[in-house]
Amino acid sequence: MTIETSIPEFGIKRDNEERRDGGCAVVFDPATQKYAVGKHDAGGLYRLFSGGVDANEDIKQGVLREVLEESGLHDFLHVEQIAEAFTHYHNSLKNVNRVAKATCFLGILKSATLVEAKLEEHEKFTLEWATAEEILANWESRNQNKDFDHWVYFLNKAVARAKELGYDKDK
User: What are the respective helix, strand and coil percentages of the chain, to the nearest 5?
Assistant: First the structure.
């Protein structure tokens, strides 16, 4: 497989990796100064709202669809692409090794009003709110296999951009 070298690559290459490109969103609520994450029912792992994007689907619209389906969040003031990366990881929800070109967006909420989330059967998590520091600590304590390196990269980029835009006040 040929990996583009113009974007960073994260994780550990594994045998039998399935290619599934997609994206994720780092969602920030200026009112609470916290980030939205999915918290796994078993083990308490935080995750970004993410997923594969269909072949005919625009990456931004696909990621926003995933955020809506997985969290119920939908009322955005600002959305922008912040980074891309190639990532090798074990998808624990589906128990498969993956390689993906992942595109990450920063979503600034206008309001945190929710519609009903539509989780797929394998998605066993709930919406939680946490600081960037809490999220990073959660990932770092579980990152022995480098499965979350791309999320760390994306979160750091998103936090820096949210601060640059004046939304994250870093109390």
Answer: 20, 35, 40
Q: Is the pTM of this model over 0.85?
A: yes
Count of residues making up the chain: 171
Which distant-in-sequence residues (6+ apart) come within 8 Å of 44 by Cβ? 138
Domains along the sequence of the chain with CATH = 15-114+123-164 (3.90.79.10)
In this predicted structure, the answer to whether residue 132 has a pLDDT above a threshold of 50 is: yes
Tokens linked to 141? 């304590």
> Would you state the structure tokens that stand for residue 11, as one six-digit string?
């994780």
